[in-house]
C-alpha cells in the first residue's frame, strides 16, 4: 500500500475534482486525486463502439456556460454547432405527426397560449428565486411541498400544455417523473440555466459540442495535474478529526493508495457519499440530507446510420413528444463524419419498462419509436448503443441528484457547508450550471478558493 502526504486529497476525477486540483496546484498546494474508475471524466465519457465515436455521457455546451467556455479556451479545445437546419417533428398524444419550425410546438392556439403563460410564470419564479439560494424565496416552502406535476395542474387545466412543459424538466433534465420532485426543484433547474425560456429553446441549451468529445476537458485537466491522479482507487474509508476537533486533517484509504492530507474534497455525486465509510461518522444533518437526494434514470440511445437520411427530407432530426417512448431525438452526427447519428432519450418510468425487456426487444421498441418521427429508415441503424448510467457502479443514475419533495428548502442551505476539513464539490450542488459540466467547473473553482481561504486563515492563526 503506497502512502502519500499531500495538502489536499480529492476524491473523484471528474471535471469538478480535476478543476479544483489544478487550481490548488497552481496556488502552490500539493494534491492527490483518487478515482475509482479506470478513466477520468466522471459522467462525461467518449468511447468508440463498433467503430463509431459516441459521447456516452454529457456532451452539449450552451452560450451561458461561461465557465466551461473559458475552460475550453484555456485547454485549446474547439467546438462545433449541432445540426439544426430544416423542420422539427412533434408527435401529439393522438399520434398526429406535424412538421414545424421555431421553438413552440405546433399545438392549438389555446394550448400554445397556456404554454406561453406557464413559461412566463416559471420565468418569473426563476428570476425571483435565483439559482444560488432558491430556498429563500417567500413561497419556497409552498413550492417545495407540491410536486411539479400537481403544481402545473393548479396553474392550468390544459393537459397537453402541462405535459409539454413538464417534458422540459422531468424528461429532459431531472429524468424523474414530474410527480416525484417539487415545483421549487423545477424553478432551481430553470434558474440555473438563466430562465425556463432557455430550457425550452433547444437551439440554446443544446448549442454546440466539443470536437473529440466533452470528456477531453477532464483528460486535458488530468494531464496538467499529472501523476497526482491515481486511477482504479475507490476510496473506502475517510478518517477525519470529528466535530470535537481532537485531531486535524484527513486520511483517505483507497484500494491501492492511502493519502494523509490537511483537507479532503468529495467530488462525487451525493448518492455516492455513502460508499465511503467516514470515521467518525458524519454529523446527523449530513446523514439526513444525503438520504433525500437521488439521481434520476434515463437511457441515452445512440443510433448511427450510413448517412443522415433525415436531412434529405428537409428535417433537422429534432423531435419531441411527451407521450412517445423516446421523448426527445436530436441529430448527433460527429464533426466531419459522413455517417449520420441520432441520439434519443427514454426517461424515468418509461426506462423502467424498457429494462424489463430483453435487449433485442428493447432495441426494436426504441427504434420503432424513433421511426415514428423520422420514418422506417430509422430502423436500419448500423450501430446501436444504450448509455445506461444507472448500471454504472460509480454513478448509479443520470443526470444529477435532486431532492425529493420538501428536501430542497429544508436541506439546501447546508449542502455546501464543510464538515471539518471535508468539502463538497460536484455539478449536483452547483447554482449556475446545475447538473452540467459548467456547474462542475464552477464548483471546482469555488471549492479550491474556499480551501485556499481556509488555509490562509489557518496559517495566519498559527503565526499569530
Automatic annotation (TrEMBL):
Q: Which GO terms describe its molecular function?
A: oxidoreductase activity
- Is Signal among this UniProt entry's keywords? no
- UniProt keyword Cell membrane present: no
Ligand binding (FAD): 16, 35-36, 235
- Binding-site list for substrate: 345
Look up the domain of life of the source. Answer: Bacteria
Domain Amine oxidase as annotated: residue spans: 16-452
- Cofactor(s) required, per the database record: FAD
Enumerate the UniProt keywords alphabetically: Oxidoreductase
Give the similarity note: Belongs to the flavin monoamine oxidase family.
Q: List the protein's name.
A: Putrescine oxidase
Identify the taxonomic lineage of the organism of origin.
Bacteria, Bacillati, Actinomycetota, Actinomycetes, Micrococcales
Amino acid at each position: 500500500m503506497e502512502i502519500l502526504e499531500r495538502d489536499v486529497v480529492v476524491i473523484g476525477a471528474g471535471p469538478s475534482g480535476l478543476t479544483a486540483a489544478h487550481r490548488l496546484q497552481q496556488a502552490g498546494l500539493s494534491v492527490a486525486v483518487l478515482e475509482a474508475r479506470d478513466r477520468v471524466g466522471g459522467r462525461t465519457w467518449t468511447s468508440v463502439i463498433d467503430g463509431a465515436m459516441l459521447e456516452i455521457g454529457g456532451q452539449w455546451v450552451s452560450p451561458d456556460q461561461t465557465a466551461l467556455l473559458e475552460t475550453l479556451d484555456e485547454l485549446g479545445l474547439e467546438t462545433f454547432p449541432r445540426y439544426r437546419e430544416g423542420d422539427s417533428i412533434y408527435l401529439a398524444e393522438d399520434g398526429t405527426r406535424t412538421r414545424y419550425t421555431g421553438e413552440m410546438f405546433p399545438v392549438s392556439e389555446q394550448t400554445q397560449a397556456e404554454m406561453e403563460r406557464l413559461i412566463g410564470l416559471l420565468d418569473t419564479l426563476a428570476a425571483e428565486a435565483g439559482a444560488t439560494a432558491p430556498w429563500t424565496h417567500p413561497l419556497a416552502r409552498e413550492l417545495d411541498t407540491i410536486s411539479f406535476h400537481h403544481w402545473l395542474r393548479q396553474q392550468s387545466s390544459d393537459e397537453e400544455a402541462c405535459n409539454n412543459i413538464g417534458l422540459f424538466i422531468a424528461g429532459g433534465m431531472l429524468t424523474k417523473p414530474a410527480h416525484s420532485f417539487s415545483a421549487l426543484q423545477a424553478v432551481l433547474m430553470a434558474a440555473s440555466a438563466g430562465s425556463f425560456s432557455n430550457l425550452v429553446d433547444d437551439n440554446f441549451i443544446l448549442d454546440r459540442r466539443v470536437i473529440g468529445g466533452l470528456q477531453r476537458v477532464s483528460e486535458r485537466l488530468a494531464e496538467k495535474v499529472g501523476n497526482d491522479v491515481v486511477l482504479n482507487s475507490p476510496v473506502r474509508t475517510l478518517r477525519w478529526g470529528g466535530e470535537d476537533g481532537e485531531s486535524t486533517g484527513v486520511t483517505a484509504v483507497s484500494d491501492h493508495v492511502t493519502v494523509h492530507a490537511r483537507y479532503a474534497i468529495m467530488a462525487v455525486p451525493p448518492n455516492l457519499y455513502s460508499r465511503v465509510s467516514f470515521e467518525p461518522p458524519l454529523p446527523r444533518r449530513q446523514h439526513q440530507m444525503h438520504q433525500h437526494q437521488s439521481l434520476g434514470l434515463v437511457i441515452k440511445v445512440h443510433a448511427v446510420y450510413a448517412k443522415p437520411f433525415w436531412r434529405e427530407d428537409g428535417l433537422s432530426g429534432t423531435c419531441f413528444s411527451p407521450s412517445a417512448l423516446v421523448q426527445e431525438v436530436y441529430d448527433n452526427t460527429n464533426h466531419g463524419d459522413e455517417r449520420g447519428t441520432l441520439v434519443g432519450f427514454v426517461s424515468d418510468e418509461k426506462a423502467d419498462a424498457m429494462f424489463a425487456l430483453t435487449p433485442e426487444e428493447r432495441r426494436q421498441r426504441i427504434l420503432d419509436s424513433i421511426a415514428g418521427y423520422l420514418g422506417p429508415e430509422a430502423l436500419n441503424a448500423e450501430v446501436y448503443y444504450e448509455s445506461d448510467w444507472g448500471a454504472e457502479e460509480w454513478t448509479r443514475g443520470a443526470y444529477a441528484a435532486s431532492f425529493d419533495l420538501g428536501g430542497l428548502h429544508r436541506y439546501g442551505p447546508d449542502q455546501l457547508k464543510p464538515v471539518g476539513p471535508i468539502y463538497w464539490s460536484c455539478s449536483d450542488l452547483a447554482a449556475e450550471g446545475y447538473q452540467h459540466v459548467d456547474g462542475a467547473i464552477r464548483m471546482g473553482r469555488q471549492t479550491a478558493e474556499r480551501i485556499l481561504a481556509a488555509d490562509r486563515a489557518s496559517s495566519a492563526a498559527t503565526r499569530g
